[in-house]
Amino acid sequence: MALPAWLHPRYRKNTYLFIYYLIQFCGHSWIFTNMTVRFFSFGEGSMVDTFYAIGLVMRLCQSISLLELLHIYVGIEPNHLFPRFLQLTERIIILFVVITSQEEVQEKYVVCVLFIFWNLLDMVRYTYSMLSVIGISYAILTWLSQTLWMPIYPLCVLAEAFAIYQSLPYFESFGTYSAKLPFDLSIYFPYVLKIYLMMLFIGMYYTYSHLYSERRDILRVFPFKKKKM
């Protein structure tokens, strides 16, 4: 006897993914709208307290995004694990380790710029993924989701690198995350950040190459047509 549609594993998987993408889309849309309204209301001054205004929601969205690694691992989301791991790791380290731990960095303009880039990418990506799960595709949205990252992702990495650069004096002054270990060993966290700064650009090259190959494959087979029901 055939199972009802709502009991079918594929239906439940798609329902879960749709809800997940919808939550992420709403979160990032709220952040972007909030930043836009604040900028037109308060001007350049709104950029200084961006983190205080929307930092909590941003941290929540980025924390939830770690579920995507589980999605890929168990096979409910068709992506490659390592490139996605690199992208999520970049954001988690910059947001939680570099920005959240240093109040002085939270007031820098680079935080506002970085949040704008992240949200532009995620609003398009989650919209595309959310509609794809329910079998709807638009040529312009497919093209945008596979193209927008090309100029913005490198800018994101540059902004992340600049955030690290601006945070170094504060990590040096306050000794945050630096620690002395037994046997006269120690961890000097600014050195760790400088090493990560180099790794950031290596990871960008790998991720960019992967995303470009993925874009080429998707746009090659995608028939640019109207909405598919």
From TrEMBL:
It comes from the Eukaryota. The keyword Endoplasmic reticulum applies. The keyword Repeat does not apply. PANTHER family: VERY-LONG-CHAIN (3R)-3-HYDROXYACYL-COA DEHYDRATASE, VERY-LONG-CHAIN (3R)-3-HYDROXYACYL-COA DEHYDRATASE 4. It catalyses: a very-long-chain (3R)-3-hydroxyacyl-CoA = a very-long-chain (2E)-enoyl-CoA + H2O; (3R)-hydroxyhexadecanoyl-CoA = (2E)-hexadecenoyl-CoA + H2O. InterPro entries: Tyr_Pase-like_PTPLA. GO terms for cellular component: endoplasmic reticulum membrane. Its main location: endoplasmic reticulum. The chain crosses the membrane at residues 18-40, 126-144, 188-208. Its EC number is 4.2.1.134. This is Very-long-chain (3R)-3-hydroxyacyl-CoA dehydratase. Belongs to the very long-chain fatty acids dehydratase HACD family. Keywords: Endoplasmic reticulum, Fatty acid biosynthesis, Fatty acid metabolism, Lipid biosynthesis, Lipid metabolism, Lyase, Membrane, Transmembrane, Transmembrane helix. GO terms for biological process: fatty acid elongation; sphingolipid biosynthetic process; very long-chain fatty acid biosynthetic process. Pathway: Lipid metabolism; fatty acid biosynthesis. Pfam families: PTPLA (PF04387). It comes from Zalophus californianus. Catalyzes the third of the four reactions of the long-chain fatty acids elongation cycle. This endoplasmic reticulum-bound enzymatic process, allows the addition of two carbons to the chain of long- and very long-chain fatty acids/VLCFAs per cycle. This enzyme catalyzes the dehydration of the 3-hydroxyacyl-CoA intermediate into trans-2,3-enoyl-CoA, within each cycle of fatty acid elongation. Thereby, it participates to the production of VLCFAs of different chain lengths that are involved in multiple biological processes as precursors of membrane lipids and lipid mediators. GO terms for molecular function: very-long-chain (3R)-3-hydroxyacyl-CoA dehydratase activity. It is a multi-pass membrane protein. It is found in: Endoplasmic reticulum membrane; Membrane.
